[in-house]
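One thing: mind reviewing this one?
=====
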Amino acid sequence: MNVVIVPPVLCLASASPRRRELLRQIGVPHLVQPADLDERCAPNESPADYVARLALAKAQAVHAARRALTPALPVLGADTTVSIDGLILGKPADLAQLHDMLGRLSGREHEVWSAVALVGSGEPVSRLCCTRVRFRVLQSTEIDRYWRSGEPCDKAGGYAIQGLGAVFVERIEGSFSGVVGLPLAETASMLVAAGVPVWQAGV
């Protein structure tokens, strides 16, 4: 059987396996070169401004690093964060932080902000997506068990909607893929407008 190797049309400035899978889902062959940036929030920065700034900074940093390469692929940057009561919730460092985060989200609605940015030969372009997610009431014992699963450690807001954390979610209003980490409608629209093909076979 012949194996068709599809050349990459994009560079993803992220090591996230979830974003890689979402790009494969829409048929975009790509390579990966993560950006190494300070991802701390600036003083008084809104969640929307925070993710938009980081998505663009990631794409610009990797594009600059790859500028001498041939062919020069466009670079996609992305960032996602969880926000409630005006607070940006990052990734929990320990069980106490996870209890604080999920305790805030328990029985309430929060926002998940995702931004994507594309840097290529022309002017950078970006898109922003906001999804509302409502959690059921969580018990302290299940937060403990969730921490022991290992899943919350590298997740903004301390949960993965595509994983074990799905059992916390009562409903969402907006983009499921945006909560996972890459809003596909916005991403595909931006890529197609820039001449980057989607739906390629064999990805």
Observations:
- Residues 89 and 157 are 5 Å apart (CA to CA).
